[in-house]
Amino acid sequence: MKWAAKLVVVLIMTVMACVPASAEQDASAVWSGAADMSWYDEEVTEFTLYTAEQLAGLAQLVNDGNSFNGRTVRLGCDIRLNSGSFNEYGAYDGDKSSANYWTPIGRERSYFSGTFDGNGYTVSGLYISTAEGHVGLFGYNTGTISNVNVVDGSVRGGRRTAAVCGYNRMGVIEGCYSDCYVYATWWGGGICGVNSGTGRISRCANAGTVKADTNSGGICGMNKESQAVIDNCFNSGAVYGFSADAGGICGLIDGGQIQSCVNVGAVVFSEPYPIACRFTPLDGSVTTISDCYYVSGQEFCEDSDGTGLTVRQMCDGAGSDEYFAELDENIWQRGSLDVSDKVTAPDGMQAVGEYPRLKGVGEPVYAYSESSPDTGITDSGAAVAAFISAAACLVLIKKKKGD
Predict the structure, then answer these.
(1) 295 contacts 381 by C-beta, under 8 angstroms
(2) Fewer CB near the terminus (10 Å): N or C of the chain?
(3) Which residues, at least 6 apart from 323, have a Cβ–Cβ distance to it below 8 Å?
(4) Residue 35: CB partners within 8 Å, gap ≥ 6?
(5) What is the largest CA-CA distance in the chain?
(6) What's the pTM?
(7) In the 8-state DSSP scheme, what is residue 273?
(8) What is the number of other CB atoms lying within 10 angstroms of the CB of residue 28?
């Protein structure tokens, strides 16, 4: 039987040898700031990345002219780009002198055209501060970006700035989640700065704060051209506009479609839109917003699209057939009024409901109120004072379990 024991040992050693050494590294390892391109092989079409250095290597390869067209890149674990955290204003609490600043994957003349699958893993600590455009984890995409979470980051840029992708030109962004602070001079979004051409943003959610001087949106800063689509997206982050066009889902839709989206985030601007500011392009192409919902209570522009619902209506899973008949039950999870055992409310407040959300994307989002348990959320939306007071909006919407 000795030969059998030896065979088992050999088999175990063989299996271990097939596992990349980088896959065994500590999941808490923080990016060193270096770029590793040793994993790339011109003859290979599928790659799995396990370190921040390898992800930075992808950025360098693409920015040097390798579009990755016809190739697939996957994440094999969570990636940490910085050891510190960022507050709700995007300020870094770590040592700024040793912070790692990210260079976006893809730019205007060397864009990403391959397939990037995050496999549901998370990239945290994204830190960008620049006056340049095409800013985000990805800068310029014409391929597919899917299933990646970008959280606890600060992204400040010029035109076309977002946490996941600055500019999506005829590409696809799907199943992605953002919880970062974003500021842009023009066209800022939680997921994408500008979506254009035949670009599509689908099943994405944002929980981070988005600010832009011009065109700010929870999901996208601007949706442009007749075939550009944003569908089945959810925003719970606060959106701030300073000079023009701020919307819960998209700052400005200048052509294309927004459909089956839900916004429960505050929109802070002199002329706020719960879904998007809709503009008819000069070429007369169709611009539509359909089957979209938002929390009523804040005063929005009179020409706003979408259906306004009270907090109770939003969270009432039993009544979802009445309010959300157009939303695909295979994509959306119904809300709930029974949240007593799911989350601990902040001091002096009570959790009054869980909003509907995308299945398998992002974290649960709860509505909180200072109302007494007797009145709860029966007062036609009055319980969600966050949508009236901009100063309170970040306090009354909690994004994670137990916060």
Answers:
(1) yes
(2) N
(3) 293, 307, 309, 313, 314, 316
(4) 53, 56, 57, 59, 60
(5) 83
(6) 0.87
(7) B
(8) 8
